[in-house]
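Hi Prof. W.,

I finally got the DUF4340 domain-containing protein prediction working! I wasn't sure whether to trim anything, so I left the full sequence exactly as given:
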Amino acid sequence: MRARSGITLFVLGLAVLAAGWVFGPGSVATERMTIARGTLMFPALPARLADAARIEIAKGTQRLTLVRTGSGKDAAWGAAQHDGYKVLPAKVHALLTSLAELRLLEPRTSNPTLYARLGLADPAKPAGAAAADQATTVRVLGPDGKPIVAVDLGRHHATQRPGGGGGVATLYVRRPEQARTWLASGNIDVDPDAQDWLDRDIMNIEGPQVVQVTTTRGATTIDLVRTGGRPDAPLSVLRPDPHPPVDDTKLDETGRALELLSFDDVRKAVPQAPVLATTVYRLRSGMAVTVTLLGEDKDSWSRFAVSGPGSAALAKVVDGWDYRLGNYKNELLAPTFATLKPPPTPVTTTGDQLQGLIHPGAPALPPGLTAPGGH
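And this is what came out:
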């Protein structure tokens, strides 16, 4: 009986030891730690950050490739999946810095069947691994195409300091060529969704800077101007004259269509795309912004061209690109009298009148009318 009890306790002890090895911050190692706690995971990276030429981010079926062009002050990062359009430099800097600051704390499992519990499952191998269990793979490559850094990133945690206070950000990591997983200190926020990386701001030209808006769609031209030359003057229809009724609020929104302008999608400019409409915004500074609406009404792209004083910086952003802005923005940038018309006048019914008449304090009912429920 005592022998059986001893065996049972021994087996339970092994199970607890294994669980601690995989998950617990105070786990007991079953092999000698050859790396000191707090050692940089990529000690050579800080000295090689300037060599980074390509970054590959993958999770499940999603892929994002960032490519650097130019060097020194002219260096810029772009998303390969969007024809190299520029991404937010602060995001790239934060990723590379976070990788350089990753520090190994404790070894974890080397058993691939347990990777999913740490969010480090390889989606190409374990069948049916949930998205939350899959690793995010990051590779930083040099100009020669050879990896400077390759790492799988798993689940994040915030470990409380003894006695309270702020937590320490940790996550599970693994070098793809090694079986060993690690608990590391660091906070790497990375996602292969390009929408999180693209610099989606196009321009920000305040409405009062716009003095004239001229839209041509087919044989129809609509010309809007600010009368009196004052920045606070409203836009009004100069031509055609006469013209159908228009809504002042929609005129004002048309004048402000270049404010905080951002895109939903971007592509390299497509040559010989069919033109739907062209709008020229003339500014007080003398700059002109030309918007060309391309494609079809329900699937259109916008192309921008700028000229005149102060246009050089904006030209570097928009030249050679088509942007998808959404139908609402397209209607503002290429207005028609159908989109500028006033909203319909509400129709008042007898029921609406009665509802007001029987409200407390309302005037007495006209002769011959009876309130609902009356006799």
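The two ends are 95 Å apart (CA to CA). Does that look reasonable to you?

Thanks,
D.
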